[in-house]
From TrEMBL:
Assigned keywords, A-Z: ATP-binding, Leucine-rich repeat, Nucleotide-binding, Plant defense, Repeat
GO MF: ADP binding; ATP binding
Domain NB-ARC stretches: 195-348
Domain Disease resistance protein winged helix: 430-489
Biological process, per Gene Ontology: defense response
The name this protein goes by in its record: Disease resistance protein RGA1 isoform X1
Highest taxon in the source lineage: Eukaryota
Domain Disease resistance N-terminal, chain residue ranges per copy: 33-95
Family per similarity comment: Belongs to the disease resistance NB-LRR family.
Amino acid sequence: MDQIALSLVGPIVSPIFDKLQNAALPYFGGDITEEELQHLQNTILPKIRAVLLVAEAKNVAVLQPWLVTLKEAAYEAEDVLDMYKYQRLKAQVSSVPKFIKTLKKTARVVVAPFSFKTALRKSMEKLVKIADGIDQFTPLVSNFTNQDPMNRQQKHAASVSSPSSPVFGRDLQRDSIVNMLISAANEPSTSSGSRIPVLAIYGIGGAGKTTLAQSINNDPRVVEHFDTKMWVHVSRIFDAHAITKKIIESIDKGECPRVENFDVLQSKLKDMLKSKKFLLVLDDVWCLDKELWDQMLIPFNEVGEMGSRILITCRAEEVTSKLGVHHSFSLAELEDNDYWSIFMHYSFGDVKKEINDPQLLELAREIVKKLSKSPLAARMVGSSLRGKEVEYWKQTLHRGDMLKDTLGALYWSFEQLRPHLQRCFALCSLYPKGYYFKNVEEDCVRLWIAQGFIEVPSNSTVTVEDEAMSYFNELLSKSFFQRKRMIGMKCTIYCMI
């Protein structure tokens, strides 16, 4: 994970250098000679940008200490520049209320001794000093420029719709679980402590538990059988209060009122569930505390109508035994043909598509062998290979060791993103695992814009908002985001970073 975090330094720092090159240098005015300005603009900053390009596209270990030092200096320069721009903007205000003028006067007393140009110059000089050590990385830059077509895709990829998430090789398990959910013969005994039957799907990370649960949740037989369906992502920290709020929001399709008292919250949930036959799906449960689990289920056990059900997904069989699950289903390794179908679906868009190029077909089969039958790896790698040339597939096969485990395959997929998409997706690590974007424009796009991550040419007629949405759609098409059909147009992200 540290390796992934360090590889993100380049993508995050690059926009800062765009800002410094375009905005900071003109502020020096007469305080910098023409020769110094030319040296900064034409030599120092381009050199730094060239190495950052390598850092964005490839995880080069030798670059990391230098990048960390560079990041700290760049942030310092950006902070000074932002403060300087703020002061310039404030000075342009010609007519303000008297009390605002008083505040301005007070503020000037505080900041007057501080010379922004001096501070900015010192920051830039620090960057120049750091850049003095950049020549040692020149071979990396030249090798990258000349040899690495895999990570240098200049063409802007078209925004295409994300492939749907069909289930392959799990038909028998899906039908078995659906039958248990809707059958009246599966009411539990009281020995488990839960009046509502609890079913579980368990398996290793990336095995397809969530995809199978989605398919079950959207099955027409399930939709017709239950009055109310709720879907909540749980994750490692089992917070009964937060989960209950999410359940209420899943029923109401809106924001839950702020209620701090857990008993009041549970009482509200009871009122919403009265006289209803419900299905509650809890995705990614890690809880091993039976007492806490039973406490959260109190409203469901007290008011749930006969025929109500709870379905959970989890990674460990231990969770199912600790929580007293009534029926559990283990996701075994997929058959070869089923796994091949997943890869074909995401890499070619059609399971039955005929590949006329024997070389491409052989490359596809060799890559699939490397993926250790992880459905998530097949989805991510297949999406990254979609529409690529044979040469790209060859180079992917040569990275086979990285593809052998799910995390390695996910990281490889991240490496294949163009730098500006890496920046945007890296920023999404600020959100908790399983976070649902209720409004993509509000939750995601505006954050990218505010950070200066959206690149729009000055002569373009495309708005920055539209360009940002094209970034989002491209990440969606490559399966870095996943649309949840059971809750409309909301999206979630994989926990890659």
